[in-house]
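Each lists sequence, tokenised fold; shown next:
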Amino acid sequence: MTSPASHLPALLATVLMLALPLASHAAPPTPPASAGQAAPALHWTDLDGAPAALAQWRGRPVLLNYWASWCGPCLKELPDLQHFSQAQAPLPNGVQVVGIALDDIEAANALRDQLQLTYPQLVESDGPPGTAATFGNRIGTLPFSVLIDAQGTVLQVHNGPLHPADLERWAAAARGAP
């Protein structure tokens, strides 16, 4: 018979493996690994199952926001993004917010409807890190956001939730304001 102490190393290893992904959700912003580079040609599926591409928003600044229905910080951030999107929509050089749900279409649709999100919602069913890895998010931190200017150049990346003040700074950066 083994003693409870002999199971301690395995138990600690399991706890660490479970805790690391959770800790990554609260990670501070990372330096923009891909800032100044052209955004790659990316493709997703919209909530109706139709193909969608990053290129369809060329000519307007875009804020890609990766989220999931099971991500608590994402759920807190989504209403702020909705408000920001509504404020940006009528502006000639306003930022187009695009949600990228790392969920299945049904879960993304349900949350979109529940939160009354009106900005475009796309689905990436591969799960984290998916296309977010092309912007430096190789561990799949959520939420994760990328600001791309109207010419398709990556301006900023951010791990974790964006707050309203962050969103205003990003809008100013997308307009080229200091």
